[in-house]
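Protocol step 4 of 5: obtain the predicted structure for the target chain.
Materials: sequence only (see below). No template structures provided, no constraints applied. The aim of this step is simply to have a reference model before the mutagenesis design in step 5. Sequence pasted as it appears in the construct record:
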Amino acid sequence: MTPKEVWLLGSIQRYLKDKGYDIVITARNYDKNIELLKLRGFNFNPIGEHGGGTLEGKLKASTERILELTNFILSLSSKPDVCISLCSVEASRVAFGLGIPHICFDDAPHATAVNKLVIPLSKFIISPKCVPKNKFFKFGAQAEDIIQFDGIDEVAWVTDFKPDDSILNELDLKKERRLIILRPKESQAAYLLNKSKNQNLAVRIIKFILEKFKDSQIVVFTRYPSQFKLLNDEFKDQIIIPSKAIDGPNLISFSDLVISGGATMEREAALLGIPAISYFPLTLDIEIFLKEREFPIWHLKNFEEVLKLIEKILKEPEKYKKNTRSLLKKLENPKLILENLLKKMGINP
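Step 4 output (structure tokens):
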């Protein structure tokens, strides 16, 4: 599990549980997701670790987790009717090997290595309609097995929560001061191992903001210990790096700007009406979709343009925020798509 999986599959778990389904959650230890599961009150089974930033490490960790996950499934009182994951290599392999249909949530056809391993073993793929079906064909997907919806994964949980400003006190943040959230680039994903050469962009962004807007509060959600050490050594108490899991969407709802080298947090921000800037190295269909639907999101590959837009937004943050309630109502929720699919498969509570 990644933090996105905690939010997506956690939201699905609660929805299906309310409908009468019996759900079992497994999770690997990665990027505070275990803490996040505890924070959100889920019962779960920790299985496996993340393999780090090398192909060798990924292979070894995945192999070990497949064995552990197999033993766990075999220890259950009855075999599950279905396995649902966010494109999990281990979940799909174990499900296939044990004769359990696997449903894969997948909005990332650019994740070539993962898709090559997961899609051929999946019964169905649930994907946003803005991601063309043919992008999955090269991995072995059949058109009839791809279930699409007019929305994005993040709709599943962004529409669930209610803002709670106690999170500001938790991090000692002041409402009257600018609040910027930064999520550094992913560097250990297989699809970025040869593309994430410049790891100091977050440092440059922080220095730029502190120079231009000295009273700013910058909260940084680091991904790895190396990122934490780099930024903590460089800025110390000039920035806030949460030491424990934080309710990200809640904090985002009180922010003025989200800057992300990834994807999930900027999409959450855009759906919540908070201006979001992405400097992710790849062009993604979902960002184009959100921009066309008039959510406040910008994807820029030129770093100087990123800095210019940061300055422009932070000069007048309220000007760039947007009430997105009516826009959200037009988007389909993937939880409902999954529920309908389960019924068609004859899997009922």
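Step 4 remarks: The first strand starts at residue 26 and ends at 29. Residues 61 and 321 are 42 Å apart (CA to CA).
Proceed to step 5.
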